[in-house]
Amino acid sequence: MGIKAALPRYELYLYTAVLGGALIWAASWIFEASSENVNRKAFKESVKPGWHYFGRKMDVADFEWIMWFNTFRNHILFALVGHVIFAKIFTLVAPKIGIDGCKHRSLVFGVYGGLAVLVTMGWTFMALVLSHCIILYSVALVKRKWMCFTAGLITLASIKLEPYNSWQETLVTGSFNLQDILFYGGCGFSIFRCMSFALENCEKKDGNYTFSDLLKYNFYLPFFFFGPIMTFDRYHAQANNMQLTRKDREMWNITIKAFLHLGVILLVDVFFHYLYILTIPSDMKLVTRLSDWCLAGLAYSNLVYDWVKAAVMFGVINTVATLDHLDPPQPPKCLTMLYVFAETHFDRGINDWLCKYVYDYIGGNHDKIFKELLATTCTFAITTLWLGPCELVYIWSFFNCFGLNFELWVAKFFSLPPFSTIEGAMGEAMSRRIRGVFNSANFWAIVLYNVLSLNSLDFAKLVGRRLIVRGFPLSTLSVLFVTYCGVQLVKERERQQALRDDPEPVKPVNDGKEKAE
């Protein structure tokens, strides 16, 4: 089926109405559950007094969101704004003292980042990070990829597995609540960056990159603690670009994005006053009494929220990086737009890193079953180590690895006769509808496989049991139909984007029949 296969306009209007009505219906169930149970004892720790304008309590169950935009908001803003001001002062002063500011700006970024890390975390943490850099730089000089991977993964395991992580953590005695998060985030992202440096050095034909290149890359402050990861080849080329120019209206677009992020932050905070989507799933006694529509809405909204959080957090960091004339990894693709496992990710930086050095490197063009199985197994093995090995992560990795391979198996199976012959004989619009049915089931597999990592295994099992077993056929088919409507609207958006990218003459519609563009 071509991506440009069209559906009648009235059919798309129907899908829009059904999807909109279903979302409002599910939200009303969540709102009712939130309002009626606001004073539950189980909610005491995660539902706190909110903005007095609303006269309602607020869901504060997500520590990461509260950390970024409430508790440590001023500290993070101070560090990022300081980075921008420090770089700007250097570009103004450098010409007056005979220094080429463009040529040395990556050094300025690294110096400020290193000083900020040193002041924030102390000299023992800095020494630990530098030891990781020295080890992986030494291995990089050998120019053997397998050695770089082995050394990198062993170093990563040292901060993820007991007793080595506890020993290293004691080297940095925390004096504030955020220090534990900064320790694991700083070390983890630093090791991935060092591995990228080492692997890119293996590709360098003439000589080696210098240790200062690694330090300048690793200590770029906006990316240091929270990501996203930008592979060394991209960062090195962009940070050392001497031709610093802005595109037309680029500063205007940066300003618009900054205000957009601020608007989303305020909207999410308002949202948390009325829908306790994070707290409710943690109370299994309450969850078992909720309707099937409420459970479906909770599962879906938790994944959408996680995407919004990633998009905003990375968006704020990317705004600073864009001011530095970098082209950072973009925020992840919206969950609502996903209906295949191949495009599912919540951190585009990690996803790009894994694809470049593992998934695409082993899997090639991803059309061979055994190569794809090997590629996905290796990819999720590294992801498991990155997330921290535990039962929940093992389950999450297994099901997502299975889903990625199962998609290929199904595609291979239905590409064989007589299925390929039948699809070739039917219209493109009908083929799109049939594929949409399978994509709808796939969408909920993505939701269930990932919601267990955001909430709990018990909540994911309950949602699956209620929607697939106890809710069959009414809840099952109605939720799948609503999902099918959403998938078709996503496909329509993709079709329109394909037409903009590669316009073709539109065929006339004859006698009201369906057309394919």
What does this protein look like?
With 517 residues, the chain is mainly alpha-helical. It has helices at 9-36, 63-71, 73-93, 105-121, 123-140, 145-158, 164-170, 179-203, 211-218, 221-224, 232-239, 250-274, 284-287, 292-323, 348-363, 369-387, 391-414, 419-425, 428-454, 457-470, 474-501, and strands at 47-49, 57-59. Strand 1 and strand 2 form a beta hairpin. Helix 6 (145-158) runs antiparallel to helix 8 (179-203), helix 14 packs across helix 20 (457-470) and helix 19 (428-454) runs antiparallel to helix 20. The protein is globular. Residues 496-517 are annotated as: Disordered.
Furnish the topology, listing elements before pairings.
Layout: H1 9-36, E1 47-49, E2 57-59, H2 63-71, H3 73-93, H4 105-121, H5 123-140, H6 145-158, H7 164-170, H8 179-203, H9 211-218, H10 221-224, H11 232-239, H12 250-274, H13 284-287, H14 292-323, H15 348-363, H16 369-387, H17 391-414, H18 419-425, H19 428-454, H20 457-470, H21 474-501
Antiparallel strand pairs: 1-2
List keywords for this structure.
21 helices, single chain, 517 residues, disordered C terminus
Shape: globular
N- and C-termini, Cα separation: 11 Å
Average of pLDDT: 88
- Which regions are unreliable across 5 or more consecutive residues at pLDDT < 50? 511-517
Spatial sequence of strands, sheet with the most strands = 1-2
Approximately how much helix is present in the residues? 55-70%
Task: Please report which band the strand proportion falls in: under 5%, 5-15%, 15-25%, 25-35%, 35-45% or over 45%.
Answer: under 5%
What is the C-alpha radius of gyration, as a whole number of Å?
Answer: 25 Å
How many helices does DSSP assign? 21
Structural class: mainly alpha
Order of helices and strands: HEEHHHHHHHHHHHHHHHHHHHH
The total beta strand count reads 2
Largest sheet: 2 strands, antiparallel
Transmembrane segments: 12-31, 75-95, 107-138, 219-237, 258-278, 369-387, 434-452, 472-490
Keywords: Endoplasmic reticulum, Membrane, Transmembrane, Transmembrane helix
Family: Belongs to the membrane-bound acyltransferase family. HHAT subfamily.
Region (Disordered): 496-517
